[in-house]
Design brief:
Protein name: PDR/VanB family oxidoreductase
Distance between the termini: 20 Å
Radius of gyration: 11 Å
Helix content: 10-25%
Strand content: 25-35%
Bound molecules: FE2/S2 (inorganic) cluster
Organism: Sphingomonas naphthae
Number of helices: 2
Order of helices and strands: EEHEEHEEE
Length: 87
Amino acid sequence: AFEVSLARSGTIVRVEPGETMLEALIGAGVDILYSCEQGICGACETRVLAGEPDHRDSIRTAAAHDQLGTIMPCCSRAKSSTLVLDL
Ligand code: FES
């Protein structure tokens, strides 16, 4: 499990191994766009402010994400214990 810290609201959302980051965010009442939930549409793309993402989508390479400071929460996870998102 890892935690997602939401920079705008100050909310901390815990993501359990059996759920996606997107599911955890929606469960916490976060208003986030999404569509495919498979890492192929790009709708959920979110800015990462801190932490080390584990990119698993098919849209951008991990290097491109890290350069842009973005993540797809529908399928990607975290290598660090916390990710800070621009949400
Ligand atoms: Fe399609 Fe995340 S919802 S890439």
